[in-house]
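Title: Comparing notes on inverse folding

I've been comparing how different people in this forum approach sequence design from structure. To keep things fair, I'm posting one structure and asking everyone to reply with a full sequence. Here's the target:
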């Protein structure tokens, strides 16, 4: 069966939400393992992890987890804010 040239086939993309976290903290040796521990103890591995230390001594960690629903992301963000040395935690969702 042939389709008319003006007829388009639209593929429905099924996407799972991706939770995005941006953590700003003091550049101390224990901060990164404490951040990662919150995910590891739930059996989660971030799909993206980027960290850097600015010349001011501020550590920034940007990480993403695919398939994380908003309620869990908000709970983890609240837990991240309780880590010693963490100044701010920003969250977003894409997908």
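Reply #1:
Here's my take.
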């Amino acid at each position: 069966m042939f389709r008319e040239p003006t007829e388009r086939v639209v593929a429905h993309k099924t996407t799972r939400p991706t939770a995005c976290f941006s953590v700003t903290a003091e550049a101390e040796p224990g901060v990164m393992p404490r951040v990662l521990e919150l995910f590891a103890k739930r059996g989660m591995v971030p799909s993206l992890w980027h960290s850097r230390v600015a010349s001011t001594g501020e550590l920034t960690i940007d990480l993403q987890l695919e398939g994380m629903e908003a309620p869990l992301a908000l709970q983890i963000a609240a837990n991240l804010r309780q880590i010693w040395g963490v100044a701010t935690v920003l969250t977003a969702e894409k997908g």
